């Protein structure tokens, strides 16, 4: 087979797969990634996009933020991030998913800013099924998506987007599924009150919605967003010298020696907490008042956005896994950050190094004398 024939064969297979996708999934889902809008601002010149947009406002300015990690930290701790200017848009005659916050035009395309990125929507956060769900036509007041996308992404992506959207349209309804975690409902009631919460499992075809663009690089949180959250949720700190955010109740992700770590923490005078057992208000107050936070890598550390008195964070990474999102969040808030790496076990679990944790705690105690 000649190179040209090989190329034509490969292109033909892709075309066949695309055609089959569209036949099976419909014009919206089947058209991803060919039919999607990465940036409304970039495509506003197109009439089919422009007729759905009545207003665009700047949500955050373009900026570069830097994270001053110690020189001996390895290079995977990223020292800077360039953020593009992001916007919020008042849209008309669009479809909105209460499950993920995804927004798309009737018949497509998908507006990726509503969910973050194409990579996310096709990969770990796959939502291609959502345009196939039943649709309910809603008329009346504007809506803002308030999707329960898991604590980390909800707190650091969905919540600040909703707060900004409500600043543009203060009388909007918050759209969410029928069943949501208690923290989602508590935050919604704080923001708009029970009467303006719209709970729906069907896709909503709405007259108007406010779309505040989500950062496409999940894990990077601008300082402006942190300040926006703190302003929207003022918190009275609960005084706590040091807390350990245990994952003992998370059987799939707990350290294999989690119980031993808890004992060591208590002996060191550290308060052991289970974030999943705490109300949204209690989590805010606890993290707002803690001086030292120790935790395995996990969503509980997203609560660092509420930290007002924190001086130090110690994170336990599992082996062969690294994500510096909480390291950057700590440094963004001016909190000293350190970490340890757990050791793997034959069963595929991991063991936190108690001696290293103890040394770091003693080091912090000595520094505070």
Structural class: alpha/beta
Average pLDDT across residues?
Answer: 93
Nearest-angstrom radius of gyration?
A: 23 Å
Query: What can be said about the biggest beta sheet?
Result: 7 strands, mixed
What is the general shape? Answer: globular
The end-to-end distance, rounded to whole angstroms, is 76 Å
Q: Beta fraction of the residues?
A: 15-25%
EC number: 2.4.1.255
GO molecular function: protein O-acetylglucosaminyltransferase activity
Pfam family, one: Glyco_transf_61
Catalytic activity: L-threonyl-[protein] + UDP-N-acetyl-alpha-D-glucosamine = 3-O-(N-acetyl-beta-D-glucosaminyl)-L-threonyl-[protein] + UDP + H(+); L-seryl-[protein] + UDP-N-acetyl-alpha-D-glucosamine = 3-O-(N-acetyl-beta-D-glucosaminyl)-L-seryl-[protein] + UDP + H(+)
Structural summary, described in words:
The protein has helices at 3-29, 40-43, 47-50, 118-122, 151-168, 182-192, 223-232, 258-267, 280-289, 325-332, 354-368; strands at residues 36-37, 53-60, 63-66, 80-83, 86-96, 103-104, 110-111, 135-138, 143-145, 173-176, 197-199, 203-212, 240-245, 271-273, 290-296, 312-317, 336-341, 343-344, 350-351. The strands form five sheets. Strands 1, 2, 5, 6, 7, 8 and 12 form a seven-stranded mixed beta sheet that branches. Strands 14-13-15-16-17 form a five-stranded parallel beta sheet, sandwiched between helices. Strands 9-10-11 form a three-stranded parallel beta sheet. The protein folds into two domains: 24-231, no CATH class; 235-368, 3-Layer(aba) Sandwich (Rossmann fold). Helix 5 (151-168) crosses helix 7 (223-232). The chain has 369 residues and is of the alpha/beta class. The termini are far apart. The mean pLDDT is 93. 33% of the residues lie in helices and 24% in strands. The radius of gyration is 23 Å and the shape is globular.
């Amino acid at each position: 087979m000649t190179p040209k024939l090989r190329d034509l064969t490969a292109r033909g297979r892709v075309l066949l797969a695309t055609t089959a996708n569209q036949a099976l999934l419909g014009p919206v889902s089947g058209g991803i990634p060919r039919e999607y809008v990465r940036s409304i601002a970039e495509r506003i010149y197109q009439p089919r996009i422009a007729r759905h947009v009545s207003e665009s406002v700047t949500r955050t300015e373009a900026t570069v933020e830097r994270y001053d990690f110690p020189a001996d930290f390895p290079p995977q701790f990223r020292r800077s991030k360039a953020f593009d200017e992001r916007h919020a848009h008042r849209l008309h005659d669009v479809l909105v998913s209460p499950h993920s916050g995804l927004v798309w035009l009737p018949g497509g395309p998908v507006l990726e800013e509503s969910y973050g990125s194409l990579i996310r929507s096709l990969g770990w956060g796959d939502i291609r099924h959502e345009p196939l769900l039943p649709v309910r036509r809603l008329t009346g007041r504007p809506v803002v998506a308030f999707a329960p996308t898991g604590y980390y992404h909800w707190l650091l992506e969905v919540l600040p987007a909703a707060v900004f959207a409500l600043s543009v349209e203060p009388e909007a309804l918050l759209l969410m599924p029928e069943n949501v975690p208690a923290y989602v409902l508590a935050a919604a009631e704080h923001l708009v009150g029970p009467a303006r919460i719209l709970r729906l499992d069907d896709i909503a075809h709405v007259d108007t919605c406010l779309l505040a663009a989500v950062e496409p690089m999940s894990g990077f949180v601008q300082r402006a967003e942190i300040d926006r959250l703190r302003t929207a949720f003022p918190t009275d700190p609960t005084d706590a010298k040091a807390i350990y955010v245990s994952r003992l109740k998370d059987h799939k992700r707990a350290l294999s020696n989690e119980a031993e770590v808890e004992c060591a923490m208590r002996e060191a005078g550290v308060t052991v907490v289970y974030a999943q057992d705490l109300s949204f208000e209690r989590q805010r107050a606890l993290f707002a008042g803690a001086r030292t936070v120790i935790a395995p890598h996990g969503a509980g550390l997203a609560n660092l956005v509420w930290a007002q008195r924190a001086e130090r964070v110690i994170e336990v990474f599992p082996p062969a896994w690294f994500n510096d999102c909480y390291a950057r969040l700590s440094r963004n808030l001016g909190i000293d950050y350190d970490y340890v790496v757990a050791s793997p076990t034959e069963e595929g679990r991991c063991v936190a190094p108690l001696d290293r944790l103890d040394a770091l705690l003693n080091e912090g105690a000595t520094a505070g004398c």
